[in-house]
Amino acid sequence: MLQLRLQQRSDIRFCVHSGLTQNETKLRLEAIYGRATLSQPTIHRWWTRFWSGEQEVRDRPRPGATLKRTAEKIQEVRDFVDSDPKTSVSEVTRFCDVSKETAHTIIRKDLHQTKCPAKWLPHNLTQQNKERQVHQARAALQMV
Questions:
Q1: Using an 8 Å Cβ cutoff, are 26 and 40 in contact?
Q2: Domains 2-51 and 71-122 are alike in CATH topology
Q3: CATH architecture observed for domain 2-51
Q4: Which end of the chain is more exposed for a tag (fewer CB within 10 A), N or C?
Q5: Distance CA 97, CA 73 (A)
Q6: pTM
Q7: What is the distance between the alpha carbons of residues 92 and 77, in angstroms, rounded to a whole number?
Q8: CATH number corresponding to 71-122
């Protein structure tokens, strides 16, 4: 989806440099992309940007909250959790300067860990753990 938008923006830039009007640009994009064409206001916004001399087809950075799940931040959280597996999300939040939601997301989705009552554990089973669980399940079924 992003690639399609970037391609259309690139085509808008080409149309502007070729001297086409906004309406001609819209018609050309509709002929190429059909229903997947950018909306008229979007075409207008990008056409105006390129007409004023801008060349970049990617969005400008937006103000507001910065992305907290950077590779450095993920590594910082990993090092902190590895140094003390009994740490809490609140401690990670204070030490690594991230929000509680970001800390939890990094731990669960990026580090693939889950909280045991006492410490953070990897959230994947080894082959031995899987076999033990299958054995215990079969033994429980035989009891019934």
A1: yes
A2: yes
A3: Orthogonal Bundle (1.10)
A4: C
A5: 9
A6: 0.47
A7: 7
A8: 1.10.10
